[in-house]
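Page 37, continued from 36.
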């Protein structure tokens, strides 16, 4: 079982207590529908991993809870674990979707938060088969476990970019909207905390995030991105070259390229959607 599908309309209506935001060279996978593994690509050498947590309350300065820069290579198992403690009724890695089709070619259909906007390399638009990735369960992975995680698309690519999918055999296809940033929301009760465990160069570290202050939210950012990309260098870039380094066993002729091109005239949108450094899913054939 991959990510468990769940309608966006059934996600709790209140703001989440914790949002985990994923951006960059990261592979999201759930093979049991309960836990999620996040593979951090260590072979994308111009990317750098940065993880930090802040607590945000309107009208107050952000409170930084933790920050980790660099690889997660100090532990013998997963580089980091994130899990809910306390009384737990449901454990699931939810793929929040709509009843509408996702149409990346035209850029329409499902609403922007539909998790299927995040590219699924195991799905019908790409390899349509299970892919082997050696990162999971190693120091280059983060495991989300023991709770309910509501996965949605956080940000889609800007409307002034298109992405050209090519393979040795077959005609190219243009995609006009894709998911660039993913998010996993967690809703806590009064008895629960979200606990992060990792190791720095000296010792094991633990951070427990309980219910945030009134109207507040805890945010956790997991970024594996270049330190800086000039706007012009984003055009023509292909992130799949980096992903194939950690997806062995795919013949060269079967590999795709996925180049970004300028679609519309006018000033560049600012922010991460314009940088083609997208998170991907390994969500099985049929996973959308």
């Amino acid at each position: 079982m991959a990510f468990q599908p769940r309608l966006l309309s059934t996600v709790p209506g209140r703001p989440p207590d914790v949002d985990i935001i994923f951006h960059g060279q990261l592979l999201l996978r759930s093979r049991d529908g309960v836990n999620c593994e996040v593979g951090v690509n260590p072979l994308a050498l111009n990317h750098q991993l940065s993880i930090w947590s802040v607590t945000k309350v309107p009208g107050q300065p952000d409170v930084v809870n933790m920050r980790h820069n660099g690889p997660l290579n100090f532990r013998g198992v997963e580089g980091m674990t994130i899990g809910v403690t306390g009384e737990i009724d449901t454990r699931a890695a939810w793929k929040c979707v709509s009843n509408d089709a996702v149409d990346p070619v035209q850029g329409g259909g499902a609403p922007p938060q539909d998790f299927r906007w995040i590219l699924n390399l195991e799905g019908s638009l790409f390899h349509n088969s299970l892919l082997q990735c050696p990162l999971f369960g190693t120091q280059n992975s983060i495991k989300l476990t023991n709770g309910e995680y509501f996965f949605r698309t956080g940000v889609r690519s800007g409307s002034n970019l298109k992405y050209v999918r090519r393979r040795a055999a077959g005609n190219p296809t243009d995609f006009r909207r894709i998911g660039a940033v993913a998010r996993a929301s967690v809703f806590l009760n009064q008895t629960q905390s979200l606990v992060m465990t990792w190791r720095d160069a000296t010792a094991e570290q633990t951070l427990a995030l309980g219910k945030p202050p009134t109207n507040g939210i805890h945010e956790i950012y997991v970024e594996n991105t270049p330190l800086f990309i000039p706007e012009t260098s984003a055009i023509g870039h292909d992130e799949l070259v980096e992903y194939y380094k950690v997806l062995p066993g795919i013949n060269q002729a079967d590999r795709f390229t996925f180049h970004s091109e300028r679609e519309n005239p006018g000033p560049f949108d600012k922010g991460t959607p314009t940088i083609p450094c997208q998170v991907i899913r390994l969500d099985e054939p049929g996973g959308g």
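The chain has two helices and 20 strands. Flag for discussion at group meeting. Helices lie at 231-234, 240-244.
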